[in-house]
């Protein structure tokens, strides 16, 4: 059964998606770094991991120093309060899906790329995180051409690929790997073989930045997915054999969207139907393209992490997972059913944070709590929301060790 048609967005939803874009807009080179933790002593199934994406995956490539007024407190508490007990520039109270994935695979939490280059480190033996809050799938020049550059970060998935190529060169892999590599393959193999490539959700910003413009949602879908598939093809050509690709989440379930959307625009989850349908449609096309890549690169395992349906499962069964507040932001202002006010962001003087974030799905109105990210990570790594199952990566990896743990 195909995805439902895209609904026409009302002015209120247009405002919702426009403001939603600020949750991933901050970018700075001098922001605070995340703590790095040593892996468990046991040998893990993968030698290293590389991550890409936006603020749902960014572990410190962005911060609040030059960010927008909506979420410019990410570099301070209460961000990071639950696990790190200080801000690490993660847009949450604690760990993200990528952190739980690293921990489960006996890898350290991935250092952000900008910390790697700013500290003049010559190697990062167990991986790097290239994800950037505010990143788009489509290259930034597209938004410039269409006069859609107001308060938009210039970083795109293409920039992250460039950063990755630069990183490979810093490891002695001249030419970035692949058929055009100008050095011996030893250094490239050391950097790529046995690595897990985790591509976090990417594309939500592309839709948000163009709401209210003459650029259609269909155009954004086509260009964003073309960019993602081109990015994946580049990784596969370099020799990547183990890749996880996350789809878009149920962005219509964010308190921000719910607070601004008309009450008659709801789906069976109680979320904004028109926004969720857009993400669902995007994911359906993305999955088709992943199947094409699997046929072209049969040596690789490409796992689709079904973010949308994993979120839906939790939203429909929130009490089962220990969540008492499926729609309300833990950290925010205004109270009411959503506890969200666009100009009283989490961390601002007028905001407060709840006593126990583990009872909340949403952290600050647009980002999720550590508790929710943990449930989602388990859904991908050990549950039924990865296709093929995540275990298939371990089966194909000759270095795989049994059992995943947190």
UniProtKB/TrEMBL annotation:
Pfam families, per database record = Lipase_GDSL (PF00657)
Question: What residue range is the signal peptide?
Answer: 1-34
Q: Which UniProt keywords apply?
A: Glycoprotein, Hydrolase, Signal
- Gene3D superfamilies assigned to the protein according to its UniProt record, in alphabetical order: SGNH hydrolase
| Family matches, as SUPFAM superfamilies | SGNH hydrolase
Q: Does the keyword Signal apply?
A: yes
Q: Which GO terms describe its molecular function?
A: hydrolase activity, acting on ester bonds
Instruction: Tell me which family the UniProt entry assigns to this protein.
Output: Belongs to the 'GDSL' lipolytic enzyme family.
Q: What is this protein called?
A: GDSL esterase/lipase
Q: Which organism is it from?
A: Camellia sinensis var. sinensis
